[in-house]
Amino acid sequence: MVMTAGIDVGTGAVKTVVFQVNHGEPRWLVRRVDRVRQRDPYKLATDAYHHALDEAGLRHRDLDYVATTGEGESLEFHTGHFY
Fold first, then answer.
1. Rounded Cα gap, residues 9 and 3, in angstroms
2. Most distant CA pair in the chain, distance
3. 10 Å Cβ neighbour count for 48?
4. pLDDT per position as a tens digit, 3-22
5. Please, are residues 9 and 42 in contact by the beta-carbon 8 Å criterion?
6. How far apart are the first and last CA of the chain?
7. What is the C-alpha separation between 65 and 78, in angstroms, rounded?
């Protein structure tokens, strides 16, 4: 079983997902979209990530991979970034 998260930091919204993959089958645990609305997108992304982990009952150390897209490469806790 693989536990992973994905975070897309965009100009209008931060999208965060947490899911597990068991024998090649993904199971979504958390999906959220947070509008930026004059907030710091990096703080919003960090907060959204931690809220998603809380909602899934997980901690950062429980994840095997944290992928980012968009402007998410600046987040300290990511494992890899996709352009």
1. 20
2. 41
3. 21
4. 999 999 999 999 999 999 99
5. yes
6. 26
7. 8
Q: Which two tokens stand for residue 14?
A: 């931060």
State the pTM of this model: 0.91
Give DSSP secondary structure letters for the chain.
Answer: -EEEEEEEE-SSEEEEEEEEEETTEEEEEEEEEEE-TTS-HHHHHHHHHHHHHHHHT--GGG-SEEEEEETGGG-TT-SEE--
pLDDT at residue 47, rounded to an integer: 97
Residue keyed to tokens 């992304």 = 45
With cut-offs at 50, 70 and 90, classify the pLDDT of residue 83: confident
Q: Residues near 30 by Cβ (< 8 Å), separated by ≥ 6?
A: 16, 17, 18, 52, 55, 56
Other CB atoms within 10 A of residue 49 CB: 25
